[in-house]
Amino acid sequence: MTATIEYTDQGHGKPVIFVHGFCETKEMWGKFIEAFSGEYRVLCPDLPGFGDSRWYDETISLEQAAEMLQDWIHDLALEKPVVIGHSLGGYAALALAELMGDELGGLGLFHSTAFADDEEKIGVRNRTLTFVKKHGVNVFVDSFVPPLFTQAHRESMKATIQKVVQIARKTTYEGLVSFTKAMRDRKDRMDVLRDFSGKKLMIAGVLDGAVKIDDSRKHQVYVDIYHELPDAGHMGMFEQEATTMQMVRDFLEW
């Protein structure tokens, strides 16, 4: 099954692609588009099943998603794009790096990991599938999104969290189910991260409940630039907006 990748495309210059995470869309990167499109060509795709990219199957693989992104990159004739992915977007970026190699100019993992799911995480994915089949997308995302932010931020960032919930509600049932399975079944890509010849960035949240900081720290030896956000959970682009923007800027200029 094919899918059309819908996307935003702003600015001119070196292409930088921001790939959203699970139950997210290209809208997640609005402030980053504003910050970087004056110097770079900033592209933000919707993965199939999220946002405006349609997907009508309950199965997809990270490899399939990467092939779709590769076709999209080739269709746009993007040369040496830097690809930065949040969470699921990082998994897709790693699969893309495995596929495209040095056709990419750089790789960034933003609250993401090259490890496959462990048994505990596989159990979480399976419970998600059961829950969504019983209760639907909206009930799931209403409970899923707030814990991605640290407890300390949930009161002060209520409006932001509600905005992210509304974005998440745009997720299709098929997109949610298919990518839950894809994340559960993905392979370890630490060797891809290690062997990728372009520049590499990792941003980790010390308080991230979705990607444990101890696991993130095991990536340090394989990336060129590694940052930890001491007061952030899984949503550093919102919880530490200015700080993470500067981290990304330093990486792009490095």
From TrEMBL:
InterPro entries assigned to the protein according to its UniProt record, in alphabetical order: AB_hydrolase_1 (IPR000073), AB_hydrolase_fold (IPR029058)
Stretch forming the signal peptide: none
Gene3D superfamilies: alpha/beta hydrolase (3.40.50.1820)
Segments forming domain AB hydrolase-1: 16-240
PANTHER family: ALPHA/BETA-HYDROLASES SUPERFAMILY PROTEIN
Record's protein name: AB hydrolase-1 domain-containing protein
The organism's taxonomic lineage, starting at the top: Bacteria, Pseudomonadati, Bacteroidota, Cytophagia, Cytophagales
